[in-house]
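Morning, I've got a small favour to ask if you have a moment. I've dropped the whole record in just underneath, so have a look.
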Amino acid sequence: MNQIKIGKYIQEKRKEKGITQSELAEKLNISDRAISKWENGICLPDASNMPIICDILGITINDLFSGEKVDMKNNEKKLEENLLEMTQLKEESDKRLLRLEILIGALALIILFTAIGISFLVDMEEWVRGLIIAFGIIIFLISMCFDLRIEQIAGYYECKDCHHKFIPTYNQVFFAQHVNRTRKMRCPKCGKKTWCKKVLK
């Protein structure tokens, strides 16, 4: 997906409609800096903003993803290409998130064990020792909350029985028994509580 091409297309359509960056930003309730980033090909609009942008600019989602007006004859083929590319982008993004999850977890453990080690190896007052241990525990707990959020949103969980893929709620992930990235959760499709495996595709 060519971000630069998409950005130029957004800019072209915005100018055709006689809308300034500030006016478009106001309609979307975001900063005009975000519009500038899209138009310079630095990043893409959020999925939640895409339908509104298309409505304002008088284009289709397919046009937006293609960075050009899609001919009706090629519409279906182009849509398939765009969907495939979006799926691949999500998969790569999920892989990066899961690597980040491991990094956050490892750093949190290092900080926790370092805090505990320092508090027991270095001679200090009890209140200072308690403060250092509390700091390590707080950092660890905050990191685990971030890790659980990543675990929830990156990829999907697949039901062992019906093979339905779903994204659970944060509470489901938080309270589920787990072994690595496999969690015992209720499938929203078949209703059975099984060991659901994390999958990216």
User: Anything to note?
Assistant: Residues 3-70 form a domain with the 434 Repressor (Amino-terminal Domain) fold (CATH 1.10.260.40). The helical segments are 3-16, 21-28, 32-39, 50-57, 61-66, 75-121, 126-153, 170-175. The mean pLDDT is 89. The longest helix spans residues 75-121.
